[in-house]
Amino acid sequence: MALYFELELLEDLISITLNPKNFTNENSVKNQYNKWSRLAITERERIKKKLRNGLLCIQKEKQRKIYIQQHQSSIIHLQNKLSEYLHALNSNRSTGKRTSTQLILVYRHFNQCLEDLLSFLEKNFTDYFNLEERISADYAQAFQEEYSSRLKSLHKQLLQTGLDKALPQMLFSTINDLFYGKKSITYRDIDYIKELTEELENVSSRKPITHYPTLAEILIELNFNCPDFKNYFLHFIKEEINKADSINEKLEKIYYHVKEISLIRARKGRRLFPDALSVQTHIAGYLQREWHYVKKKQSLSVSDSSNNKENDEEPLEAIHLQMSVEELGLLTNIQKQAGLLKNTNMRSLAKLLAANHRSLRKDKLSWQNLYNCFSKVEMTTINSLDDKLITMVNTLRKIKSDLKNN
Fold first, then answer.
1. How far, in Å, are 155, 157, 215, 225 from residue 177 at the CA level?
2. Residue 133's pLDDT band (boundaries 50, 70, 90)?
3. Which of 80, 133, 271, 352 is most enclosed, with most CB atoms within 10 A?
């Protein structure tokens, strides 16, 4: 099915008719000014109607996406063309050459109509709107001007709150590099910085979820997954773990951080760098490695007596999980209901799992306890397992992305 292009008239008008090279005197612009202004509004409304009706005639989702995104891209292209026209006229004015004031107004009027069309697409066709599309040069400049003062004010406020100054310094340095040093800014970037700014402006009224700094909680929620923040947060956790006086205390601190991290719910679809691991996945990986390292160190430090070996040494054949017995029971229940497990005797399955798995809390599992956890489910267990499954899915997507890139 051939997809219609609804911007043909508008594109010809801006690219050809309104090209500043075609105007040699002010009168020719004045005579057409009102006509062009009305035409811009008429075309804008006509295009909106055509896009609504056109999408209804398209059955396949892929073609719907192409239909909306080709119009989105074309509108941004026309905006950039108008920006070039305005830049040329302003350059002529600065060198003393005569410039048509009316023509400048016409360009701004058309640009406003195009901006309105983009807002229409973003609001009404959210599922098809391309967040990876570069925004227009004018929009980028206007956005930077609007948010520059807000971000500078936030930076000063956060430095005065008694927080570790390294955290806000790192945050705003990354933002500056991203939004002022980047050659192209996408709609995803814009959405991210808007949401981040709103959260930072309301940081004082936010109730803490964990013992971590509130600013750190916000950055984990919004997946501020730049290397500097990951390193900063890892250093924060390492310092707390290393304060432990004994191996058992260190293990307790590691498990405490595992629970704390799982309490912070990362927002769906939010990620500063789409191709990088999430903050939670990165931190969870470190805590898992640190747990196994400390446990191994613990096993090497015990006495050689058979009793101590039996109680403290990790069996080589056991599978050591980074989850509680309640989470393992719920996970098994999910696999059973989803048709991924063929075992019918759940009691025997509980014995098999208990014999070959070790939970985060205990070295040895009680099969009776595990069997009871197959059916008894609490909301806290659902929430904690949900976080772990999200981490697994994010890791799978990262592997998939790496394969595609290779």
1. 15, 20, 20, 14
2. very high
3. 271
